[in-house]
Amino acid sequence: MQRTVTRVLKYGVLLSTYGLIGSVLLQIFARFFLENTPPWTEATSRMFFIYATAFAAGLAFKNNYYVHLDVVFDKLPANIQRVLEVIIPALVLLLFGLLTIYAIPFIMAGHFEFSPSMNIRMSFVFFSMFIMGASICYYAWQEQRRQYKRPKP
């Protein structure tokens, strides 16, 4: 299951990043070589950037790429470090669990709104919040399980 989730997120990051690059290149090309720049390229670039970030957030949590205050953490006693290693993923799970739950009504509300330049439902754009929250929750849950299975020193 974890391999499938990781693979989906990686492909999501790749496709979103390629879409971002493509839409920016199209906008640059249009500004230099066409009479009019397509009005949807800026909104498309923004949407691809948001989705690339949403897909990458869970992978960043999984691979421990977020900023840590190791200088402070390393100076703490071992028992406090152990407690923090259990509490932090639990708090992350709680925070992003709430974000994921509250993203659902936001997505539903966006179903009736349309993007002016791209003419797509805003629920599609808002779905990125659900992806980000759910993927971080998934990997926080995995980390929580790993912390409880780890032998105590």
Give the helix/strand layout.
Layout: H1 2-33, H2 41-62, H3 70-75, H4 78-110, H5 122-149
Helix pairs in contact: 1-2, 2-5, 4-5
Supply the key terms.
5 helices, 153 residues, elongated, mainly alpha
Number of domains: 1
Portion of residues within helices: over 70%
| Radius of gyration of CA atoms, rounded to a whole number | 20 Å
Following the backbone from N to C, one meets helices and strands in this order, namely HHHHH
Main sheet summary = none
Mean pLDDT, rounded to whole units? 90
Structural class: mainly alpha
Strand content: under 5%
Could you give the count of β-strands?
0
Are there runs of 5+ residues with pLDDT below 50, and where?
Answer: none
The number of distinct helices, counting runs of at least 4 residues, comes to 5
Q: How far from one another are the termini?
A: 30 Å
Q: Give the overall shape.
A: elongated
Structure notes:
With 153 residues, the chain is mainly alpha-helical. Helix content is 79%, strand content 0%. It is elongated and about 65 Å long. The mean pLDDT is 90.
Q: Nutshell version of this structure?
A:
This protein is mainly α.
